[in-house]
What we know:
This protein is of the alpha/beta class and about 210 residues long.
Amino acid sequence: MTQQSQEFNQQRTLSHGKKNETIEETIEKVKQRIIETGDKPHVTVARQLELLNELVGFPLGQFLLQNGGLNGYWTDYILEHQFQGRVTGIDTEGRSLTKFEKYFLDKTPTFLATQERYIYFGKIIQNYVQDDVVLASLPCGVMRDLLKLDFTGVENFRLVGIDIDYESLELAKKLAEEYDLSEKVEFHQEDAWNLPFEDEFTLLTSN
């Protein structure tokens, strides 16, 4: 990452701010906060500490605890889980999912709604696939929502990925290579509130 891109990320990324501390330091801070706050009407300190221990038992939980949000990689992980991890019980690295992790990914309303929206939007976007179409995604994350579309029989099209997060854009570029679509895509690191585009896209979606 260039220094300019890194500074841009640090100043602008709101969904998942990186902390300058280790996961161990983050866990300890959360533990102390739970203990200092004490029992709550609906949950005891002991139960909160149990849940914390379960949350940090898998990579996604650690990322959420430390960053307070999702980046492009973990958003894609959650969306694709319904096609892979939910079926096999194994993540993309070959690791068996924990019981709490399965609940997190398969039962929580927010994640379920996001996964269902992903499928629904994919069907709608597919209807726009035709020659001379320009499809854009903002923020694009790894942009699998556009890259996995069926372009059979369509020669002239362009895919545009826009994101403020440099790391997500780099992952999107690699994924475009995997789908053999590198020549059809372009990526821009931009602030969503200050875009240099005007009437360029047939359809603008959000991942």
